[in-house]
Amino acid sequence: MPKNSFYFQWHITDFCGNRCTHCYLNDFNKTKVSLRTARKIMDDMQDCCSELDAETILSITGGDPLTHPNIWEILEQARKFVRKLAVLGNPELLNEKSIGKLQSIGIDWYQVSLDGLQQTHDKIRSPGSFQRTVGGIRRLVDAGITVVVNSTISDLNLNEMSDVMRLCYNLGVGKWSFARYVPNSGTCGLTAREYNNFLKEVYRESIDLAGEKSTFISGDSLMNSAIDRPQDCDSIVGGCALGGSAMCILPDNTVMSCRRHKESSLGKWMKKGDLLELFLFHPKMQEYRKTELIEGCGKCAFRFQCRGCRALALAQSGNTFGKDPQCVITDS
Ligand code: SF4
Ligand code: SF4
Fold first, then answer.
1. Which fold has domain 4-331?
2. What is the pLDDT of residues 129-147, one digit of tens each?
């Protein structure tokens, strides 16, 4: 049994029918990985994880991954070696046939996005998207496929998240999670205090809603300080994954440490061995691991499970190691 785990988020295509206001794609509908290259990348993921004595957790995403012409071949190969296999996609192509394929391949979960109630979600994503997403969730749940819902949080939708959580619960969603919106520059529009209050509320709601059907998880390392949950440890146990055991691969084979951190590109995957080499030795990865460089976190009791969001620090201050703009500790 491997001692560690390693997470890959793999964007196999940038084809997408939506044009969400907070999307990171610049080039819609231009690039997708070929099946031949996809097979080689998966072999390299397997080698990389074996060298690291890690089980592989793989999320296949896009664009809309279901639009990739070889999605089923890619998922079938992935299923043979990964421990956890997820698809992060859109609801539009979820029908009897595609859901049957997802069932027979045996994905561990399908993730969709809900960024608010109907009006807000449709404004952020596209008209009719809310109903399509709810319909997709219902079809997946009926088929016995675990659904994860993720919400991207900003000042546009913060106040609707309690209702989104309850909706997810009523729909039989397996997990609800969230992440802050990371703009190219500036902040997600929330003050540190507003966001801290939100985290506390989410935590309270998650306890209220905890039951057999659903779990509600924090996608944000700042939750630890919001609910005062320090751990007795003296090495990293969680928090920001920049430089950590996770990498993102784009449709043109660019490897990034984190998709939301716009300067974390490590170069293009070219050949077997590149994933391990980039992870272990790329100078950016080595620098990201110097947690002592992070402004304001050095003496914080939560530093081994938090370190804030480095992508938001970069967007706000131009410095990866700057303060997390929504941290109440560094804000005080
Ligand atoms: S920079 Fe932000 S989005 Fe990226 S891994 Fe760290 S916390 Fe997550
Ligand atoms: S000071 Fe740093 S480690 Fe502490 S809660 Fe804020 S961002 Fe997290």
1. TIM Barrel (3.20.20)
2. 999 999 999 999 999 999 9
